[in-house]
Give the backbone structure.
Amino acid sequence: MEIKFFKKENKFKRDKQSLNTRKHWNIIIRVLAVLILGSFVFGYYIFTQEGQDFSVDTASVASTHHKINKDKLQKILDLFSEREKKSLDILNNTTVIVDPSK
């Protein structure tokens, strides 16, 4: 005579309520790949558009740029030379240190 005790059966099946992470990771990777590819295409499109907008025409450059006024340029150069002289005077003059104990 055999005594049969209650034995719990081990079931190694996935619960249907658990998330399928492999599926979600595949979706995330595909979305990121599409976004990266789209950013490259968008960047190339913007690069080509900007390249066309900045084509240089010598006639238009000559007409839009003004001639340099020599008097204004000389005033600016004089201003910088005066500043240089003041800076050299400050560097060359030694400051007198007063001894407060006397």
User: Anything to note?
Assistant: DSSP finds three helices and no strands in the chain. Residues 21-54+68-92 form one domain. Helices lie at 21-53, 58-64, 70-92.
